[in-house]
């Protein structure tokens, strides 16, 4: 059978120099993490691109309009002449880049709903709570991430001092308000009061971290409340290397605010109970995700005791990677 032009372009792409896989994001931490987690799970070396489309193309992305090949500047335009075998994008702006690469012969996988017809990509990976469905759509619960047993073991190795802290060790992951999260002072006050009281009553330790969205006053209150409680508090680089992997790896339980699907998904990938705070203040698609993990009993709402319960890790990345590899014949000769 005569090969199509697309097949011919893909054969050329597969024999081009450079990494066989590219990840393409806008640099936002959550998008970078998802794209690179999928690339790593596929077991292929990859080149990571951080792209920012220029005006006017960023207004229309991922829609292709005249001159779209120039959207990301001359360096990327030249790079597209020898495209990778596989392009993995995450986020709306990167969806234009993966679409352009597909037109040049790469297989294109787009993470998160691109908000236009999915036929422009080989596969679209979307969380179930987005409600996107289609023949080329792969759904998952939560988000893609690198957390598995090896990742947790590496976290314990990198931060062995956390393992010497008294138990039970409570990892406290604090986010902040967003387009879908309407946290107020009472949300944070209830969270901090309960964690502090339980830690002091039990004689355990608290491993706390904040995010870029956490209000500064919450970080200050956190330090005041936990004064004298064993553990650590990390708010930014001034506190030393980010111990996030160590927090998840050494925790006996995790308390997490409900604003971040990525953060809660990673907490759920561990072997310990997860308690979620502030889920009543979450709206839209993230609220649907929180409700799904509450209904599945993987997560419980923040309560007065934080009593342990049996859990099974929620890990979707390996399954999704296997489906991507099967559908796109990655790792096999596809003729």
Which terms summarize this structure?
single chain, 335 residues, alpha/beta, 6-stranded parallel β-sheet, 12 strands, elongated
Helix content: 25-40%
Which percent band covers the strand fraction?
15-25%
The outline comes out as elongated
Low-confidence stretches: 11-17
Number of helical runs? Answer: 12
The strand count comes to: 12
- Biggest sheet layout: 6 strands, parallel
Distance between the termini: 11 Å
Strand order of the largest sheet: 2-1-3-4-5-6
Mean pLDDT: 92
What is the element string, with H for helices and E for strands?
Answer: HEHEHHEHEEEHEHEHEHEHEHEH
Structural class: alpha/beta
The radius of gyration computed from the alpha-carbon positions, rounded to a whole number of angstroms, is 22 Å
Summarize the structure.
The chain has helices at 5-14, 29-41, 57-60, 74-79, 92-103, 149-158, 185-202, 216-225, 244-250, 261-268, 284-295, 317-328, and strands spanning 21-25, 46-50, 86-90, 107-111, 123-127, 137-140, 169-174, 205-210, 231-234, 253-257, 274-277, 299-301. The chain has 335 residues and is an alpha/beta fold.
């Amino acid at each position: 059978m005569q090969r199509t032009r697309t097949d011919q372009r893909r054969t050329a792409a597969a024999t081009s120099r450079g990494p066989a896989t590219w990840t393409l994001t806008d640099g936002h931490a959550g998008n970078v993490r998802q794209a690179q987690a999928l690339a790593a799970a596929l077991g292929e070396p990859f080149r990571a691109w951080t792209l920012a489309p220029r005006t006017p193309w960023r207004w229309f992305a991922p829609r292709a309009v005249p001159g779209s090949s120039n959207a990301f500047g001359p360096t990327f335009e030249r790079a597209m002449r020898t495209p990778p075998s596989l392009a993995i994008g995450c986020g709306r702006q990167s969806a234009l880049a993966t679409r352009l690469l597909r037109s040049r012969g790469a297989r294109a996988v787009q993470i998160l709903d691109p908000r236009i017809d999915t036929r422009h990509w080989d596969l679209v990976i979307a969380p179930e709570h987005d409600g996107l469905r289609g023949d080329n759509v792969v759904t998952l619960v939560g988000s893609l991430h690198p957390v598995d047993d090896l990742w947790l073991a590496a976290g314990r190795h990198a931060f062995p001092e956390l393992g010497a802290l008294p138990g039970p060790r409570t990892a406290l992951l604090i986010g902040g308000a967003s387009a879908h999260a309407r946290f107020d002072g009472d949300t944070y006050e209830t969270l901090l009061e309960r964690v502090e009281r339980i830690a002091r009553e039990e004689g355990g330790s608290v491993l706390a971290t904040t995010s870029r969205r956490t209000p500064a006053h919450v970080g200050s209150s956190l330090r005041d409340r936990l004064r004298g409680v064993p553990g650590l508090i990390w708010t930014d680089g001034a506190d030393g290397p980010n111990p996030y992997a160590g927090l998840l790896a050494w925790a006996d339980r995790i308390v997490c605010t409900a604003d971040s699907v990525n953060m809660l998904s990673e907490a759920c990938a561990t072997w310990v109970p997860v308690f979620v705070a502030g889920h009543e203040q979450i709206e839209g698609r993230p609220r649907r995700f929180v409700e799904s993990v509450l209904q599945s009993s993987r997560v419980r709402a923040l309560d007065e005791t934080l009593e342990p319960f049996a859990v099974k890790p929620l890990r979707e990345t390996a399954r999704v990677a296997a489906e991507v590899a099967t559908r796109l014949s990655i790792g096999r000769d596809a003729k």
